[in-house]
UniProtKB/TrEMBL annotation, chain A:
Entry-linked InterPro entries: ABC_transp_permease
Species this chain originates from: Actinomadura litoris
Record's keyword terms, sorted: Cell inner membrane, Cell membrane, Membrane, Sugar transport, Transmembrane, Transmembrane helix, Transport
CC annotations in GO: plasma membrane
TM spans (from-to): 34-57, 69-87, 94-112, 118-141, 148-165, 202-221, 228-247, 253-273, 285-315, 331-350
Biased composition (Low complexity): 1-20
Protein localization: Cell membrane
Functional summary from the UniProt entry: Part of the binding-protein-dependent transport system for D-xylose. Probably responsible for the translocation of the substrate across the membrane.
UniProt protein name: Xylose transport system permease protein XylH
TrEMBL record, chain B:
Keywords: ATP-binding, Nucleotide-binding
Domain of life: Bacteria
GO molecular function ontology, one term from the record: ATP hydrolysis activity
UniProt source species: Actinomadura litoris
Residues in the signal sequence: none
Source organism phylogeny: Bacteria, Bacillati, Actinomycetota, Actinomycetes, Streptosporangiales
Location of the ABC transporter domain: 10-247
Protein's UniProt name: ATP-binding cassette domain-containing protein
Length: 358, 288
């Protein structure tokens, strides 16, 4: 509280005598402006990974392989959209992985057990999955416990519910097949079909993914809500002081993750017709990795949906590239971990650069 | 600037506040009128924060009256105070360091075109223009606000309050964490805000920052008023004497000394004035 808090490096003016110019001038070259983009590190990484697998795996550059890579990227990329927005808003969701399975089970079990049109299951699942996201969010804003702890708890609870309820209802670890039920074909067309582009079949999830990235980017950069997301992640106290509805924004972000989980869950149901109740555990980390590789800061307030999409693309390339290179897929996780480490260090540098004088 | 007949913009009469058994503030009077700066001085724990929070709408006073333009008020939230034109710039400034200057400027009061869509061009240009009107020439309103100096950030926060219709501006220790040159910049904006017809309530524990800009001085000590004077009723020496803390003054002398030796860069006129005043006070240069 005393004046000494200003410290020795208090901005008492330029040190040298020959500094009549503004002290801000040196700080922002075009290069550092580019370096400050959250996506830059991810983009360079994506180029490097692409070149690497193009060289070591002959099959990698074929159009069909590329479609496979995009599909792998999209299945994680869809979730990475919601997770990256949540991380920009300063929170984690560890329940995201099993929530996808929960959402899929909700649709499959509801439709099968009540012998309904599958679209009814889809609708029930949407409502209940969004409610799950809302529960995560409300628990967070009302308890002020770290979201890490809250969603760790809901992660285990959902994982247990998935198994327990499925076994209780079906007597099995998987849901019954909904393939022959009313509406399956139309739902499959929406959530799990292949779309021909030229002579290449691309899974519809790729379009869901790109659409979500576009919408999320628009929200982040061009809407008031986006402004609030950055603000609640960057400094929730300041945001509250200028009238940003912090609690509402955070709950909305958890529900955004739930919405993405619903889309992913519907893909699971209509791609495979049955849902394995133990699936999804561990995937939450892949989503977070996509977001971090894409430039989201773990501490919030910084990042982009496009970056997370590039992160998911790197993820897809590595995942499938290792197969095309005919390596042991066990190495995939090693690569993933190494990339996460590099990405986190790049982010650290970015943050220091941006916040140097803060 | 105002008729003497009209009530002042902000008037506190016999205001008090207790937190449980702790009496944080007791029987304090204060007025702030358009085109005037009212300084609130006091050491740590003197009740400055409590007073601000009452004015800003964060706390409700439990004794005395709080009038805005002659009308008694009891604010339930800072938003209520803002609606009456009373804006508070806190020490932490309520800015988000990683966000661009223009996004910070409009945060919480974003301007939109159509449903949900931000009018980014308007907000960028307005931010640039408003800061220019305060004498800050930013090359790039897209730079994160964290890259600005402390004084500049303070000025952005002040400009924001002024733009959003503040009639009275409460500044919570705006110079506390700043070096002398930066403090001089902020003092200049306080004067500018006054000249734009705002009522300014300037909280500080530094009489040398308060005296050159203030029209009225309220000195708080242990939650009570230790003096409330117009500028013509009190000298700088008396004001300084009313404030506790000799060590603090000694340190100030060093800082003023440092400002004097870096020469006369453009915005340092207020700092220079402060230096001269300090020398007149006999706060000598021990380092030499």
């Amino acid at each position: 509280m005393t004046r000494s808090t200003a410290g020795p490096d208090a901005p008492t003016g330029p040190a040298g005598p020959a500094a009549p110019a503004d002290e801000r001038l040196a700080r922002r070259s075009p290069l550092s402006g580019l370096l400050a983009r959250p996506e830059l590190g991810a983009l360079l990484g994506a180029v490097a990974v692409f070149v690497f697998f193009s060289v070591v795996a002959d099959a990698f550059l074929q159009a069909t392989s590329f479609s496979t890579v995009l599909y792998a990227a999209s299945t994680f990329g869809i979730m990475a959209v919601g997770v990256s927005l949540l991380m920009i808003g300063g929170e984690f969701d560890l329940s995201a992985g099993v929530m996808v399975t929960t959402s899929a089970l909700l649709a499959a079990l509801t439709a099968y057990q009540l012998t309904l049109n599958v679209w009814a299951g889809v609708a029930v699942s949407l409502v209940l999955t969004l409610a799950l996201g809302m529960v995560n969010g409300l628990l967070y804003v009302n308890t002020r416990l770290p979201s890490f702890i809250i969603t760790l708890a809901t992660f285990f609870m959902l994982a247990g519910l998935n198994l327990g309820v499925t076994k209780a209802v079906t007597g099995n670890v998987a849901s019954d097949s909904v393939r022959d039920m009313d509406g399956f074909d139309s739902a499959r067309a929406v959530f799990a079909s292949e779309v021909g582009i030229g002579d290449v079949e691309v899974n519809v999830t790729v379009f869901w993914w790109l659409g979500l990235v576009a919408v999320a980017t628009w929200i982040l950069l061009r809407t008031r809500t986006g402004n609030w997301i950055f603000a609640v992640g960057g400094d929730a106290g300041s945001a509250r002081a200028v009238g940003v509805p912090v609690a509402r924004t955070k709950v909305g972000l958890f529900m955004g993750v739930a919405l993405c989980a619903w889309i992913s869950g519907m893909h699971l149901v209509f791609a495979f017709a049955t849902v394995q109740s133990g699936e999804g555990v561990g995937n939450e980390f892949f989503y977070i990795i996509c977001a971090v590789i894409g430039g989201c800061l773990l501490t919030g307030g910084y990042g982009s949906a496009i970056g997370a999409a590039i992160g998911a693309f790197i993820f897809g390339m590595t995942n499938k590239g290792i197969v095309y290179a005919e390596w042991n897929p066990d190495w995939f996780k090693f690569f993933l971990g190494a990339m996460l480490l590099v990405a986190a260090m790049v982010n650290l540098i970015v943050r220091r650069r941006v916040e140097r004088s803060a | 600037m105002t008729d003497t007949g009209t009530p002042p913009l902000v008037r506190l009469t016999g205001v008090g506040k207790s937190h449980g058994t702790v009496i944080a503030l007791r029987d304090v009077d204060l007025e702030a009128d358009a085109g005037e700066v009212t300084c609130v001085l006091g050491d740590n724990g003197a009740g400055k924060s409590t007073l601000i929070k009452i004015i800003a709408g964060l706390h409700r006073h439990d004794a005395g009256t709080y009038e805005v333009a002659g009308e008694p008020v009891a604010f339930g939230s800072p938003r209520d105070a803002l609606d009456r034109g009373i804006a508070t710039v806190y020490q932490d400034l309520a800015v988000v360091p990683l966000m661009p200057v223009w996004r910070n400027f409009f945060l919480g009061s974003e301007r939109r075109r159509g449903i949900g869509r931000l009018d980014t061009r308007f907000m960028r240009e307005t931010t640039r223009a408003e800061l220019a009107a305060m004498g800050i020439d930013l090359r790039d309103v897209d730079q994160p606000i964290g890259t600005l100096s402390g004084g500049e950030r303070q000025c952005v926060a002040i400009a924001r309050a002024v733009y959003f219709g503040a009639k009275a501006l409460v500044l919570d220790e705006p110079t506390a964490a700043l070096g002398v040159k930066q403090a001089g910049v902020v003092l200049r904006y306080i004067v500018q805000a006054r000249e734009r017809g705002l009522a300014v309530i300037f909280i500080t524990h530094n009489p040398h920052h308060a005296y050159p800009v203030g029209d009225r001085f309220l000195i708080l000590n242990r939650g009570r008023s230790a003096g409330y004077h117009g500028k013509d009723e009190i000298t700088r020496e008396e004001l300084t004497a009313l404030m506790a803390g000799g060590a603090e003054l000694e340190q100030l002398a060093h800082e003023l000394d440092a400002a004097g030796s870096t020469g006369s860069a453009g915005s340092a006129s207020a700092a220079r004035r402060l230096t001269e005043e300090a020398e007149r006070l006999g706060l000598t240069r021990e380092a030499e």
